[in-house]
Hints:
alpha+beta, four-stranded antiparallel sheet, 7 strands
Amino acid sequence: MIKLFKRADFYLILFFCLLGIVSFVPRLMASGNMTATISQRGQVLYSIDLDNIQGSYTITIDGRPSADILVKKGEIGFVRATCPDKICVKTGMLTKPGQSAACLPAKLIITTGKATGRKAPDVITY
């Protein structure tokens, strides 16, 4: 009978599983307030601290097409847009750090994240 796994194979698989789990710990332990950034054509229009919102309000972005963004404590999202497909509205409310919603015809993007005391690099490489 042939053994598929040797003891070293088991330890190698266990090592990579633990490495994967450890890589998610900093994200789970991240502290700081949840923030949202609204940008259009690469320029930041609004930077909002979502944990310190009292009540709710709507931001209207004029242009062609126009959009309304609802801001509540801990969540933000598109509620109305005059673009033809309305994918941004169908995205729903953003409630977790790292989420994003975009209205491509208006070149409008909402991203969420955690505020930290230091500037961290935001780099994606391929």
